[in-house]
Design brief:
With 191 residues, this protein is an all-beta fold. 0% of the residues lie in helices and 49% in strands. The protein contains no helices and 15 strands. Strands 5-6-14-9 form a four-stranded antiparallel beta sheet, with no helix packed on it. The chain has a four-stranded antiparallel beta sheet with strand order 11-12-8-15, with no helix packed on it. The radius of gyration is 25 Å and the shape is rod-shaped.
Length: 191
Amino acid sequence: GEYGLSNNSCDGTLLIPNGTCTFDVTFSPLSIGAKAGSVSIPSNAAASPYIVSLSGNGVQPELTITKTNNVGGSMTYPGTWQWTITVTNTGTADAIFNDGDYILRDYLPSTNVSYQFDGGGFGTYTGSGSLDFDATLPDIYVRWIGGTANLQPGGQLILVYTATPTAGGIFINPRPSLPFCQADPDNVVSE
């Protein structure tokens, strides 16, 4: 079930009057939403068993992604433009990224353009480590390195990188037949 007992010093224990024993109740919801349960405590009392009602709420993270540029989609060559990617946890639980987990992948135009990571960071998170920007062209990957990051509900990760064309042309993002920029491309965060 979704509720369980652990650290149970009561199981099989005969208590003397005013004696005590302890147990912990665990909650591992299988889906989102309100969850009810109970613990039955048997005894030799007339009103046995004593029933303790339990309630909990199953929550989960939900990652959304937005991407904007500072040139409104067109520019004159030569020049540069910046892309800003914002990953937001719109769910009701922390999104947890561990060492080496990819946070996003973007399928960039692959010819006649170079990219530079200008920076980024979490607006609201707990943990330790840092962002790693991997421009293994033509794709950009951002992953978490050296610890764990908990992106809290409502928290954001904002990344900015500059694109510099080396020749004129039309640059389409994402490249044809590939998906839009993806948050959590390897599904390490349960959503």
